[in-house]
Write a structure and sequence with these properties.
Helices cover about 30% and strands about 20% of the residues. It is an alpha/beta fold and about 650 residues long. It has four domains: about 55 residues, Phosphorylase Kinase, domain 1 (2-Layer Sandwich); about 240 residues, 3-Layer(aba) Sandwich (Rossmann fold); about 190 residues, Dimethylsulfoxide Reductase, domain 2 (3-Layer(aba) Sandwich), CATH 3.40.228.10; about 110 residues, Barwin-like endoglucanases (Beta Barrel), CATH 2.40.40. The chain has an eight-stranded mixed sheet with strand order 5-4-17-16-15-6-7-14. The longest helix has 19 residues. The structure holds ligand MGD (2 copies), iron/sulfur cluster and molybdenum atom (MO). One ligand MGD binds next to helix 16, strand 16 and strand 22. One ligand MGD binds next to helix 6, strand 22 and strand 23.
């Protein structure tokens, strides 16, 4: 059989939204490559998606609806599955009101058409939904508070920078298409500094690396600001375009640069290095997403915003403090009213479900998520789902979450996808189309809610006045509907299916006029130090559960490890040997791991992959308490202290 090539876009929860070339032979995905014509993808893909064919072709893919039958499941037809769930949802709505149903949607796909599932639950209910954001809530809140909006400079504006600060970023693993841009910037003379408590491959491309103490970046930023004040290198106009300049100055002056530096466990030379880089404009700050996942995470991002502003790097080409690209900014989602009767806080979802009253949560519908493995405190999330009367999970595999479902509905994967995608690491938008037909009876989330709406209408004798009519439309029609804002620029669904286009609604440099969409029109400088987590007696090591190149959150490409590898400095595990099987214990749980000793790491950290399998004992979230960040209702995944213990 000949191999055909199909152009599409990656919908994974990743900053890069790559153009993909899917190689298909005899209806089977044999290879995935990067689109050479995409300006950011540049013809290459990350490890996890290059190896996606192994996942796509796994024998344990769910291909028919599965209905709970005792401890296991039995395969049922779509008709049986949908009439079962239509009947149950309608009964719960009638008896307890729609707020008794929770729709939880996470990041399994960043496709915009997934919002049609939200729309279904708005039309059917509105039901209860989550609030807050485990991923970027703290940083989002920081930038919205400081600037009144959250956006980034054009990715290629980094080529105008003299200095680039990679603040808590691991580009080789979680943002691989940033690497060529950094290398190009270096060729043009830019100097790169990495600030990260973990020594990773990013250090190879950095000219200077600072292994800051975990969660101490606020103190580090204050140390740098202090040096800038002392040496008269503060932007003289800063007081005119910011609020709280005096309060910020007093906060910086409340300790000496040396005291702040000691608190961050960095040398005065490191502080000088950063102050010099910021003063030698333009200096771009690239803020990673992981650092915000701390109880002081929003405060940390606010401190970096402030550093950018007072050093005069705001609003200039090659400067800025870039955290998140507004990936939905090009799309029209005004069909959603977003008026929900009740919201449950995502980082503490397990407790929230268990505690909900008037009405209690009776049913949970899960779209594009594996909350048992990926939310903190997996045990409580698992218990919350196990004790509901109806749990519906739409997925392609029997995940930790799906195994706790009443009904599992089989769905499409990223190469069978028909959707619109924006990126949170650049400004190009694109549309996916299926490279191949899904196996068995898998349906897209869109088709599932369209069919469910019809089943509900039949059940309620709605006779054409039900909800199905609101959801009608082919994927192409839904794409066109969401492209209303950019259609005047000649952007169409057909066009985007062929070629990615830069969102025409963005500017390459932000706040060039130093005007901000805040209530006062000025930038908001942080003026208080956020509290750091209390020490935990007996648990000396900071647990880093950060992205690994082999997995997209809990979705491994290729074989999933049977045991977690935990990397730490030999002195962090005295008396233990490299390769030894040990326990990692936190205040709430423990998992077995294989120790890997690495003398280049700090002595107070231990590193495991972020996504694992809870039932197999490979998920870090068995150890991590459900705690909120200081703002934005994010999850403080990284404020988890552990110890190494003998098996
Ligand atoms: N391969 C792969 N790529 C991914 C993902 C994946 O699962 N696998 N997930 C995707 C998703 S969902 C997202 S949101 C993004 C995640 O993007 P990030 O959260 O930014 O990615 P990570 O690589 O987990 O973390 C980035 C870096 O932050 C550092 N860091 C942690 N705490 C601190 C701190 O206190 N101070 C400083 N200075 N640095 C700190 C970590 O050591 C790490 O090197 O990546 C996406 N990309
Ligand atoms: N310990 C720790 N935990 C973390 C993090 C961390 O750094 N450390 N990071 C957090 C972050 S940043 C994030 S974003 C979350 C991610 O949390 P989740 O979004 O829950 O992560 P995934 O494991 O990717 O689960 C997505 C599921 O969606 C399914 N899926 C894929 N495509 C589709 C589709 O088209 N339709 C449907 N219905 N399903 C689909 C996949 O098979 C997969 O099971 O994890 C968080 N959890
Ligand atoms: S996961 Fe990210 S880097 Fe990998 S192919 Fe998809 S968009 Fe590109
Ligand atoms: Mo994320």
């Amino acid at each position: 059989m000949a191999v055909t090539q199909h152009h599409t876009v990656c919908n994974r929860d990743c900053p890069d939204a790559c153009g993909l070339i899917a190689h298909v032979e005899d209806g089977k995905l044999v290879r995935l490559a990067g689109d050479p014509a995409h300006p950011v993808t540049k013809g290459f893909l990350c490890y996890r998606t290059s190896h996606f064919p192994e996942r796509q072709n796994r024998a344990d893919r769910i291909t028919r609806p599965l209905l709970r039958d005792g401890d296991g499941f039995r395969e049922v037809s779509w008709d049986e599955a949908l009439s079962f769930v239509a009947e149950r949802l309608v009964a719960i709505r009638r008896e307890s009101g729609p707020a008794a149903i929770l729709h939880y949607r996470s990041g399994g796909s960043l496709g915009m058409l997934k919002l049609v599932v939200d729309y279904f639950f708005e039309q059917f209910g509105p039901v209860s939904v989550k609030r807050g954001d485990i991923c970027s809530g703290a940083g989002d809140a920081a930038q919205e508070t400081d600037f009144g909006e959250e956006e980034s400079h054009d990715l290629f504006d980094l080529l105008n920078a003299k200095h680039i600060l990679l603040w808590g970023k691991n580009p080789y693993v979680s943002n691989v298409h940033l690497v060529p841009v950094l290398l190009d910037a270096k060729k043009r003379g830019a100097k790169v500094t990495l600030i990260d408590p973990v020594r990773h491959k990013g250090a190879n491309l950095a000219n200077h690396t600072i292994l800051v103490k975990p969660g101490a970046d606020f103190a580090l930023a204050m140390a740098v600001a202090s040096r800038l004040f002392e040496s008269g290198r503060i932007d003289s106009s800063a007081a005119s375009f910011t609020d709280h300049f005096d309060a910020f100055s007093s906060l910086v002056a409340s300790r000496s640069a040396a005291e702040w530096a000691a608190d961050a466990d960095v040398t005065p030379a490191d502080v000088d290095h950063l102050a010099n880089a910021l003063a030698d404009k333009p200096c771009a700050i690239q803020v990673g997403w992981g650092m915000g996942r701390r109880t002081n995470g929003s405060g940390i991002v606010r401190a970096l915003d402030a550093l950018c502003a007072v050093s005069g790097n705001l609003g200039i080409p090659g400067g800025g403090v870039s955290f998140y690209f507004k990936r939905r900014g090009a799309f029209d989602t005004s069909f959603l009213k977003k008026e929900w009767p009740r919201t449950l806080c995502e980082p503490i979802l397990g407790e929230e479900i268990l505690a909900a009253q008037d009405p209690p949560i009776r049913a949970v519908w899960i779209t594009t998520g594996n909350p048992v493995a990926m939310l903190p405190d997996s045990a409580t999330v698992a218990r919350a789902l196990e004790t509901r009367e109806l749990v519906v999970v739409v997925d392609s595999f029997l995940t930790d979450t799906a195994r706790r479902a009443t009904l599992v509905l089989p769905t499409t994967t990223l190469v069978e996808d028909d959707d619109l995608v924006g990126a949170y690491g650049h400004h190009w938008i694109a549309a996916s189309t299926p490279a191949l037909a899904p196996p068995g009876e898998c349906l897209s989330d869109l088709e599932i809610v369209q069919r469910l709406a019809a089943a509900i209408d039949a059940h309620t004798n709605a006779n054409g006045n039900g909800i199905a009519k609101h959801l009608a439309g082919t994927p192409r029609e839904w794409k066109s509907r969401m492209l209303g804002k950019v259609a005047p620029y000649g952007i169409t669904a057909e066009g985007l299916e062929k070629k990615a286009v830069k969102n025409p609604l963005v500017s390459d440099v932000l706040f060039a006029d130093r005007k901000f969409p805040t209530p006062t029109g000025r930038m908001n400088l942080v003026s208080e130090e956020p509290a750091r987590p209390a020490e935990e007696e007996g648990f000396p090591l900071w647990l880093f559960s950060s992205s690994t190149e082999k997995a997209q959150s809990s979705q491994w490409s290729g074989p999933e490890p049977d045991i977690v590898t935990a990397t730490c400095h030999p002195e962090a595990a005295p008396g233990f040997a490299d390769g030894e099987r040990v326990f990692l214990e936190s205040a709430i749980g423990r998992i077995a791991v294989l120790l890997k000793l690495d003398a280049t790491q700090r002595r107070d950290t231990v590193l495991v992959p972020k996504g694992g399998h809870y039932d197999k004992g490979t998920s870090a979230n068995a150890l991590i308490r459900a705690r909120l960040t200081d703002a934005g209702e994010g999850a403080a995944y990284l404020d988890c202290k552990v110890r190494v213990a003998r098996v």
